Amino acid sequence: MSGNVSRRSFIKQGAVVGASSLLGAGMLSCRGREDQPAADEETQAAETEPRPNAISVITGDRYFDNTIVAVEQIGGMGQFVSEGSRVAVLANPQRNNPGAFTRPAIVAAIVRMCREAGAEQVACLSWQPEQNWENTGIAQAISDEGADLVIVNQRDESLFNLVPVPKGVALKEARLMAELANYDVLIDVPITKDHAGNKFTGTLKNFMGLNSPQSNQFFHQENWTTDIGAITHLEQCIADLNTVITPDLCVVDATELITTNGPFGPGELVRPQKIVAGTDRVAIDAYCCTLWGLAPHDIIAINKAFEHGLGEIDLSKVQIKEIQV
Description:
alpha/beta
């Protein structure tokens, strides 16, 4: 581990004060900081409405530059990050097998744009081991850009807040990372790829990375990779979890991905060379699953998230801005 990464890595051992401000109305968003007045019911209801579902798709192998173009095509980072804000980034460092982790250049570009937009702090949040971040190269990339790596001790349940899931069909409560309360903006930066059982992971499933691993065990019933009932339960839990987490922006690595043996790999690879950005999780995942021949309506979590009103599943109703560079 480099000295720079070491100075910018924090292993959280104690409870984080202030996260209780995020609980209530079945909605968790980094915008609900403790120092802000509580929204009334009408405002909270409005915040649950899906945002405009235009997405940008940039194709090419200049991953850092193309990430910037992808965000610019939907209005630029300045509409998500304001001067003095604190930004939490949720990337995927799951394994260093090709096509199994978010490219470091994409995460670095996100950090650069947040800094240029005036962010006071940018941090990657995770309960994944620091070694994963180092092995994938993400730790060095974000350190070079001046971001922090904040790793929460996954074995300490006091670092996760119990959050009710009022709209949950299968999932009635979650245990979300308390550290999230310290940030104003949440950016979801997953890699889209194969996943055991449900065959697809993207923006929606990535939020299991904010939920306690112990809580995530409830998602996985016996035979969850083969039994349709268990698979449906997993997918419903993923959709339910997304009703209490609202990302401000999603940027998906669809450059190189595994289509078998997910989520860890190694597996068969396809290389769409695409970066996908937007605010509509359902539309983005609906688009990304088509990159290796899957249909949005065949992915249970995408259907369940659509039923929750979290976004648009019909790509004919989505404005897709595609650029080849």
